[in-house]
Amino acid sequence: MAELDDKVTEHSQIPLRDPVLVVAFRGWNDAGDAASFAAQHLGRVWSAERVASIDPEEFYDFQAVRPQVELVDGITRRITWPSNELWAARLQGSAHDALLFVGTEPNVRWRTFSGLIVDLAKKHGVKLVLTLGALLADVPHSRPVPITGTAVDPELVARLDLQRSRYEGPTGIVGVLHDAFARSGIDSASLWAAVPHYLAVTPNPKAALALVEKASRLVGVTVEVDDLRRATGTYEERVSEMVASDEDVEAYVRLLEEKTDEQAVEELDPSKMPSGEELAAELERFLRDKNEGGPPLP
In sequence order, what DSSP letters do the residues of 114-152 get, joined into one string? Predict the structure, then answer.
């Protein structure tokens, strides 16, 4: 990591088997806090241990992203700075382990910041990166959360049944990070959850649950989600009550539901929908091909 080492603090060393790196950022890429919530849930249920952190001093405008002050034992004041931490987890029942990077989108020096994450990934032998994101969209809260999976590499798109990213326009740190990984020869894919735009300020456990379930299927590891399911049930009840209290909002949501149901009928084709086991098997195969350094199997 050369001259950038002074910005990274290593906390522990954990031997990992061919780890997949999962990344999520608070901020522009995190509508409804769904992506960061999902990554934190994975870290908790996988009993992840913190292995490294990035010093925030060089990457934030603290007037825009202010540190938080809190009282310890009701007396001592402590400052909590924007965090960017790397966590490691040994995964039982999987051929590889996981690294989780959970952070806050920086304000400045994005290329340097992305370079630090790439260096950390290389140090731990990461060959595949999966980023989590959430965006505001015209979707109803009462229907399954749409998850879009994208990648740049055609082989990865085909293997994991993703889509080739065709987005053009403003991007966040996630987009910059994918570019940095591509330039370093590390494959990356991205999962995005669509969050109802009329609930932009509401924490969205339903979208977090959808991201966790999709990510776990790709990684090939069962994840405990009972608490997320309970939170999702409470969320849906409260939002439905709120919507029902406003006739205009209720009418708008009904239109979104009708549109969503029509699209589901048009697009549903069970023969083209891979199972979780198939997705995990393709990921294992993709990583094995990368490890062997040979051409992909037919």
Answer: HHHHHHHHHHTT--EEEEEEEEEES--TTSPPPEEEEES
pLDDT tens digits along 38-54: 999 999 999 999 999 99
Please check whether residue 173 is in contact with residue 108, taking contact to mean a CB–CB distance below 8 angstroms: no
Across the chain, mean pLDDT equals 86
Q: What is the mean pLDDT of residues 263-284?
A: 56
Residue 120 within any structural domain of the chain: yes
Residue-range definition of the domain harbouring residue 162: 2-292
DSSP 1: -
| 134 falls within a domain | yes
- Report how many domains make up the chain: 1
Count of beta carbons in the 10 Å neighbourhood of residue 258: 11
Structure letter (DSSP) for residue 231: H
Residue 17 lies in a domain: yes
**pLDDT of 280 higher than 70:** no
* Burial (0-12, 13-18, 19+ Cβ within 10 Å), 52: buried
Contact 249, 185 (CB under 8 A): no
Q: Round to whole Å and give the CA distance between 43 and 134.
A: 18
Among 223, 154, 225, smallest CA distance to 189 is for 154
For residue range 146-200, list pLDDT tens digits in order: 998 888 777 777 777 777 777 778 889 999 999 999 999 999 999 999 999 988 6
Q: Would 75 be classed as within a structural domain?
A: yes
HSE-CB for 182 with a 13 A CA cutoff: 13
Helix (H) or strand (E) holding 18, with range, is: none
266's tokens = 């048009």
Q: Is the pLDDT of residue 74 over 80?
A: no
